[in-house]
Amino acid sequence: MHIPLYKKILSYLYPVQIAKASTVHNSVLELCLSNGQFQLATRDALYSDGDRYRPLTIAFNHLGALLYNVKDVLILGTGLGSVAQILQAKGMKPAYTFVEYDETILQWAMQTLHADIVAKSKAVCADALLFMNDYKQQQDMLVVDIFNSRVVPAFVTTEDFLKKCRLCIKPGGHFVLNYIVLNNTDWSTVERSVKSVFPDLTVLENGINRIIVATV
Could you tell me which CATH class the domain 51-215 is placed in? Predict the structure, then answer.
């Protein structure tokens, strides 16, 4: 996506709106440029923030040198592809499968990601739950970053869905789940549910975000 130079300069003073849309899944979507990087926002949530996206930056910093073994990544909940942008900033160039149920978001991601990333990517417009019912391949890493506004859909933390996720990760591979805690009691239930499928996990905190990182 070509952005005029003056808008890039202005983005270091304040966020510059590049596009706006209303879709079946999101009544308000805004694509902005902030400090030279693309942001994706809804009315009350920030879905993507380039390689500055904190939850996934924290997860990947935790994995550290283990990331060098990652050759392919499945991403459920694409946003603008912050997973790929963060890994690229770290010098890594795995292949990606991006799964996103909002076609506009997926289009914006493919338009704004670096050409080197797009060349090694497969973009799938699909509901993550339905996608995982039929997906049989295995990846080195699976990242789940699915939200309706600030709420993680209930299916994401069900035992059935988590088991399907585990089956799609190669032995020694990694599972990353970004979750927002709105209720501490609910979070305790979620943590137990995830741990029953991914016992070797670490929970990292960033404000109300809980980032689960597990090794299979």
Answer: alpha beta
